[in-house]
Design a protein that fits this description.
two-stranded antiparallel sheet, 251 residues, globular, single chain, 6 helices
């Protein structure tokens, strides 16, 4: 009897620690242990740089802090109107070259680049690009008056994660910053924003729920905190059989 009890306890401990170890690795399990975890034990720790890691080994501090974060004037100087206790330097890139599919425009409206209708990158995308355009170091954080951080000469994001690579060129990446409903209104191969996500997402999210001020931005496809997404790479749904793409594109 005692052996049975001990065996059950041992199995329980294995399952418990196993589930903890998997936190963040699986979609929807939180930011810990994901590539956005820059603490010493996190996947992204290698990009912080020696001497600029947080001495309390925190996770949130690289993007957010409770005090002394970027103020409205600094944000406005970089054309950012959304800065949720933002603790990382904001990209100084003023304008980006947005997606193009070439100069030979087809006749069919469904195959034209309707997303080129006056795209303007939203603030939420600019926050993402503060790391992902490769122009700033990952360790460019910390705005407290006594802070010794903010090492802008530190390690930048790896090449495979760069969007534009610090050259402001997003022409070979999915368009962002455009009004989704304006495109859907003229293209019958774009699903309405009231459509639910195609594929497994237990939160009942629609396309419209994931737009930012009505526009498609980085956060329309990605949940950076790995909380309500059910796809890898922080995507709201797993792209099995192109479910992520076919959520919006009615092909």
């Amino acid at each position: 009897m005692k052996k049975s009890i001990l065996a059950c306890v041992a199995i329980g401990l294995v399952l418990t620690f196993g589930s903890i170890a998997m936190a963040g690795i699986n979609p929807g399990t939180g930011i810990s242990q994901t590539s956005h975890d820059l603490s010493s034990g996190g996947v992204g720790a290698a990009y912080v740089g020696a001497g600029t890691a947080d001495n309390l080994d925190r996770i949130c501090i690289y993007c957010h802090a409770p005090h002394h974060t970027i103020d409205a004037a600094t944000a406005a100087a970089n054309s950012v109107t959304y800065f949720p206790l933002w603790n990382h330097a904001i990209t100084t890139v003023a304008t980006y070259q947005t997606y193009t599919d070439g100069s030979d425009t087809p006749n069919g409206i469904q195959h034209q680049l309707n997303a080129s209708l006056s795209p303007t990158l939203g603030s939420v995308s600019k926050l993402c690009l503060s790391c992902h355009d490769g122009s700033l170091a990952i360790s460019a954080y910390g705005y407290a008056p006594s802070s010794t951080l903010g090492n802008t000469a530190g390690t930048k994001i790896a090449g495979r994660f760069k969007l534009g690579g610090g050259t402001q060129d997003l022409r070979n990446h999915h368009p962002i910053g455009f009004n989704y409903d304006a495109v859907a209104a003229i293209d019958d191969e774009i699903n309405p924003s009231t459509s639910g996500l195609l594929g497994a997402n237990t939160y009942g999210l629609t396309i419209g729920d994931l737009l930012w001020n009505g526009k498609m931005e980085c956060s329309t496809c990605h949940d950076v905190h790995n909380t309500k997404n059910e796809g890898s790479k922080f995507t709201w749904v797993q792209d099995t059989r192109s479910n992520l793409c076919l959520t919006c594109h009615n092909k």
